[in-house]
Amino acid sequence: MSLETEIARRRTFGIISHPDAGKTTLTEKLLLFGGAIQEAGAVKSNKIKKGATSDFMEIERQRGISVATSVLAFEYNDIKVNILDTPGHKDFAEDTFRTLTAVDSVIVVIDVAKGVEEQTEKLVEVCRMRNIPIIVFINKLDREGKDAFDLLDEIEQKLKLKITPLSFPIGMGYEFKGIFNIWEKNVNIFTGDSKKDIEDTVEITDLADQKLNKLVGDTAADTLREEIELVQGIYPEFNKVDYLKGEQQPVFFGSALNNFGVRELLDCFVQIAPTPRPKQSEERIVKPDETKFSGFVFKIHANMDPNHRNRLAFIKIGSGEFKRNTPYLHVRNKKKMKFSSPNAFFAERKEIVDISYPGDIVGIQDTGNFKIGDSLTEGEILNYKGVPSFSPEHFRYINNADPLKSKQLYKGIDQLMDEGVAQLFTLNLNGRKVIGTVGVLQYEVIQYRLEHEYGAKCSYENLNVHKACWVEPEDEKNSEFEEFKRVKQRFLAKDKQDQLVFLADSMFTLQMTQQKFPTIKFHFTSEFS
Ligand code: G4P
């Protein structure tokens, strides 16, 4: 098949949700449809269980398992679907943000009873910033939940999306009778009380058709007619161009657990979801159909087994064909590298591939050459953009607890930061090192890994920082910037890319600083140009 054909049949996306909304269950059902797994329960092991929050060894063990499920690929109607797994645990939210740089679209799962939750808001905000096409799946319709219209309002307001329903529930919870598929113009009817199976899919091109009354009863049929009229009155018609631009988001209703509305979601997804999209590099926009290969590292996974301390770097192919045993330029290191055993991922296994195409993810064994964000090309100097750091939530000084092992400690910190476990800031004033994390759990993870993988010991000391702000002066040479650096000397640090960061101890300090130095911009993310 030609490069164009391969690109045209690829859909690479991520499923995001607040923990427990049903991401794992939906993933599993999609894999079942794709024939990638044979039974339910196969991807469950990837999930970091509730209650495991204080047991980070358990979490690490599960992270180990999750290498296999980092990318879940399957074929459906001749479309190659790549699902990039995102960790549900909020302490690993940074991982999820980074994975979003490698997806071409997302499906957002929302629990019908809980509505829009905190984690969803944050993740959708990142998608909106990047104009990533979004499909919303409202899950658990077999349970009592919020009124469909209230929920759609909530989604529009909290997630700031412009939605349009492509399916609509007929009743809910105990009264749940089925789903009217606006996209396909048919009705799925549930069976009996258990609501475990779809009894029938009946085509209803005209809602006035009395067939509907026979299927769901007079009351439910009339309610549905009224509701669909309302839907058509309130919401715009689905427009694929707007969806692809990230300006309109279709909504589906269903129940992942009961496999309701999942096939409809998948059928629509493969039709409308984007093929691999062009991506911005610092130098130029890179198009997938360019013949020369390029790609970037969006995730690094360390092997937790101390006997095999290698890492796996995940590379998203951005353009051209990636071939095994072919020399490629590691742009940051200015070194040519060849890869003898690149892995492709499937639901339950990974295998060596000879050739991969845009949209695909390959895993490369790495002994410490790669950092998140690194680019590989056939020779061009190209630095893919878009693996930003976000301000961490927690900040602690890291101290060396074993003076004889300082070399090991610094090497360990360096490598763990390259993997994106946490962020390192070095204070300008005295060179002290500060570790910033999204969740407190990472401190334990770092301490454990430094000890077991690098033979180094560390201790932490609290540091009162509200937010890390990347500093962008209007003019590096003006007196205001000089004054800022003098006054705030104690709170200035460099991140790993040597960018200047202001560690503000409170929202109030930040506001005061902004007022006092109006020509300086403060950003909560490292990528602002
Ligand atoms: P997550 O990955 O988003 O965190 O959620 P996950 O799929 O693990 O689902 C969270 C819980 O919600 C699970 O129950 C799952 O069975 C349930 N669930 C998912 N989809 C539906 C649905 O459509 N209807 C109903 N009623 N429940 C649903 P659990 O008891 O926490 O886990 P398990 O013991 O079933 O694995």
The overall average pLDDT, rounded, is 87
Uncertain spans = 45-54
Report the bound ligands by name, code or SMILES.
guanosine-5',3'-tetraphosphate
Shape descriptor reads globular
Look at the structure and name the CATH superfamily of the largest domain.
Answer: P-loop containing nucleotide triphosphate hydrolases
Category by helix and strand content: alpha+beta
Using the CA coordinates, give the radius of gyration: 25 Å
Top-tier CATH class of the largest domain: Alpha Beta
Quantity of strands, as a count: 31
Largest sheet report: 8 strands, antiparallel
Total DSSP helices: 14
- Distance between the amino and carboxyl termini: 38 Å
**What is the CATH topology descriptor of the largest domain?**
Rossmann fold
Estimated helix fraction: 25-40%
Brief descriptors of the model:
3 domains, Rossmann fold, 27% helix, alpha+beta, Alpha-Beta Plaits, single chain, 529 residues, 7-stranded mixed β-sheet, 8-stranded antiparallel β-sheet, globular, binds guanosine-5',3'-tetraphosphate
